[in-house]
Amino acid sequence: MKVLVVLLIALAVIYCKTPLPMEKKVYIRREHSLIKPYSSMSMDTPMWDYSGSTIVSNNEIRLTPDHQSKAGRVWNTIPLMSRNWEILMEFKVHGQGRTLYGDGFALWYSHERQLMAGPVFGAKNGFNGLGIFFDTYSNHNGEHSHGHPYISAVVHNGTQTYDHDSDGTHNELAGCQCSFRGQKHDTFVSIKYINNILTVHTDVRGKSKWTKCFEVKNVVLPVGYHLGLSASTGDLADNHDVKMLKLYEVDLVEGQTYNVDEALKLVPSAEGEPDRPHVHPKKTEKGSSVLWTIFYIFITLVIVFSAIGIGIIVWQKKQEDRRRKRFF
Ligand SMILES: [Ca+2]
Q1: What's the pLDDT at 18?
Q2: CA–centroid distance, residue 319 to ligand 1 (Å)
Q3: How many domains does the chain contain in total?
Q4: Who surrounds ion ligand 1 at CB < 5 A?
């Protein structure tokens, strides 16, 4: 009986500790995962390539250290052939900066393995595939409609470019503000791609609770692309650490079909928010409101001076009339 109770408690603890709202049938794919300890990984399983400032230690993969002008990348050598998948990632973004830090990191599902340095969180621009960006630094000093840190998703087919100066807000699919930086506890993200629906959840408050960041439907991604991670620092810096990345293959959902040849040929696309014009709404509002204020002041002054003028004329006329009455 005691053994049974202990077993039940153990099972309950394991169940409670499982941090993910898992789909029913999931299988971990180790060839697409990053699991500790890492030091032996590069020798035993040459499934990930590193470049730039990336340093691999026992407990983490540090994409950049907390130093200026660094960029690091890690890319999976094996193409991912799962139609539905879920990524569970533990990461840590931290550094000495209290209010100034940057720039952030990205998780990729891309056609090319982008091991060369580039401007999009340390990787190439004009990419083919999906990028999930964890942006800690606002390039626009708070002139966005959102604050930072900010998580967003972008799907590109190689023809679009990421506008780093505007933090990519003009072509993001969806995004959410999320305080993942500088936390003392572990921070997690879950990225699901199931039946063309992309869902991102975060667990960054140390309460083992998932919060939905966003969900986008009709996201078309082919199979056969590569998972990757990249990060960069500029004038401002941070440590960008990945502690663990687990890729789970998820079974097809009811009614979903999978033809490998067709799925390989798909062109990345998404029906998210359309490309926004490159105008900052707050700036425009600010500019137009100043113009309106000047216009109102001008009109008010015209009315006031006209009233005073008319008043003076009327008063003068009355005075004249009185004088005339006195003389005649
Ligand atoms: Ca940024």
Answers
A1: 47
A2: 71
A3: 2
A4: 135, 137, 139, 167
